[in-house]
Amino acid sequence: MGRPIDKNFIGDPADAGLQINLTTATLFDGTTLTGPWIVRQRTNLKYEITDGTNTGVLSLISGTGQAPAGFATLRVVPVGEGPTEYLRSLHGNTVKTWQGNIYSWVHQLEGKTATEKGQADFSPAMS
Fold first, then answer.
1. φ and ψ at 113, to 5 degrees?
2. Do 71 and 61 touch, CB atoms closer than 8 A?
3. Closest CA to 64 of 81, 79, 88, 85
4. Measured between alpha carbons, how far is residue 115 from residues 13, 49, 54, 69 in Å?
5. CA-CA distance, 22 to 3, in Å (whole number)?
6. What is the pLDDT of residues 74-111, one digit of tens each?
7. pTM of the predicted model as reported, rounded to 2 decimal places
8. Contacts for 61-66: CB closer than 8 Å, 24+ residues apart
9. What are the structural domain ranges in the chain?
């Protein structure tokens, strides 16, 4: 799996920290979760999520709009680098996008948190 994401980005967004959360998600059984967050990373592409009541596993896919049941999209907004991209996988401090780019994950940027609902701030990876 590579190096997992930092635990500061996992958990209930109501707690202090920089947790990643999704706007909505639909589990394979059709249950819709509102405001879910990541409970744990299972693989680079799969994440266990919950809304505090329902829990399930989602896989990341590329695309806009409503993801099909069991899948989710997470937007990546590279700082100073063109259009929105979509997260393919997370590793320690880097992300890979479906568009084929790799970025370093900046935990704080100009007073913003690294993640906001539905998007993430990144800077170009150092090579």
1. -80, 160
2. yes
3. 85
4. 10, 16, 23, 24
5. 22
6. 777 666 556 777 878 877 767 788 888 887 765 543 44
7. 0.67
8. 61/86, 61/98, 62/86, 62/88, 62/98, 62/99, 66/24, 66/26
9. 7-124
pLDDT tens, position by position, 40-75? 888 877 889 898 999 999 888 777 667 788 887 777
22 contacts 74 by C-beta, under 8 angstroms: yes
| 26/66 Cα distance (integer angstroms) | 9
**How many angstroms separate the CA atoms of 85 and 34, rounded?**
23
How far apart are alpha carbons 70 and 75 in whole angstroms? 17
- Rounded Cα distance between 27 and 6, Å, is 24
Residue 80 φ/ψ region, left for φ over 0, alpha for ψ in the -120 to 50 degree band, beta for the rest? left
Tokens of 126: 């150092």
* Closest among 43, 78, 74 to 57, alpha carbons compared: 43
